[in-house]
Predict the 3D structure of the following.
Amino acid sequence: IEIENQVMSLKDNIKINGALVKNCVKVVGIGKTSYNPGPPLDNINITVKINRWYYPGLGLIKMTREESSDSETMGSVFYEKTINFWWLIKLLALCAQIMQKHTWLILFLA
């Protein structure tokens, strides 16, 4: 299935394990296909939507995938995956906040 991806936001905020992660890049991918299982069923149209969030300097931190169809037989499937090292994201977010508020400290340390 061919998925067309589009950057939806450069500053998306999401929650992972209760921690707010700011300034993520959100990419949404959508693809469509069809499947004919044969009689007595007709052609089944399937849509796949993938949401991905990337944290700058770290990479992919969360992904959701939904596969839906126009058939009651096929139904829909939802999948979500988040990284397991949420504490690192909190630390990086905290560092980013400190760097934004205290640019003088960065200049001093450089």
Observations:
- The helical segments are 86-101, 103-109.
